[in-house]
Structures are given as C-alpha cells and as structure tokens.
Specification:
By secondary structure, the chain is an all-beta fold. The chain has strands spanning 4-7, 10-12, 18-24, 30-36, 43-49, 54-56, 64-69, 74-79, 88-95, 101-103, 107-111. Strands 2, 4, 5, 6, 9, 10 and 11 form a seven-stranded mixed sheet that branches. Strands 1-3-8-7 form a four-stranded antiparallel sheet, with no helix packed on it. A hairpin with a 4-residue loop joins strand 7 and strand 8 (74-79). The protein is globular. The N and C termini lie far apart (40 Å).
C-alpha cells in the first residue's frame, strides 16, 4: 500500500510562484501531478519516472518543473508564472512497478489578485 502526502498549496497572485511537494511510501515507478479545476476533468500536469524521464502538459511547459528525490521518495512541482487558469486542486499520483496507482488527498492552488 502506497501513501502519498502532499503539501505546498495556497493562494498566490498572477505571475507568482508556488512549490508543491509530495512524500511517498513504497517503491514507485512513476510519480506525477494532476489537477482538477471546478467543472473540469482531472488532467495530467507533469510526470517523472524513477530514471528522471519527464513529461509535461503543453499548458505548463516552460513554467512548471517536476523533480524527484529517489532517496527520499519525494516529488516536487515548482510552478512559476502562475495564471488564474492554473487554479485547481492538485493531486499527487504514484504508479508502482506492477501497475497499481494511488492518489494523494489533493492540495488547493488558487491564483488570484
């Protein structure tokens, strides 16, 4: 059983920055961040494998950076140049080597002046 604990959400002005972190238990192959805005489907923001291969959604390329510390089993999402449309609940997601997936509880990110 994998447990994920997220931290770092909050309120930020447009153009500002936030850093999200997620601590995972267990052996994880892929760690990812998803987000879900009100009335919209949950969507992939970025993901990173145990070998540090990354993939980003087009709407965050150049603004967000995902990183991973395999020794500490943590994943972070550095978000810069935030826009109001980035407002959402952000979820940490983990995929194990045998294909099981797990979700964190979510952390609210609000971009507003």
């Amino acid at each position: 059983q994998v447990q994920l604990v997220e931290s770092g959400g909050g309120l930020v002005q447009p153009g500002g920055s936030l850093r999200l972190s997620c601590a995972a238990s267990g052996s994880i192959f892929i760690l990812a961040w998803y987000r879900q805005a009100p009335g919209k489907q949950r969507e992939l923001v970025a993901r990173i494998t145990s070998g540090s291969s990354t993939r980003y959604a087009d709407f965050v390329k150049g603004r967000f950076t995902i990183s991973r510390d395999n020794a500490k089993n943590t994943v972070s999402l550095q978000m810069m140049s935030l826009k109001p449309e980035d407002t959402a609940v952000y979820y940490c997601n983990a995929a194990t080597w045998n294909g099981d997936t797990y979700w964190g509880q979510g952390t609210q990110v609000t971009v507003s002046s």
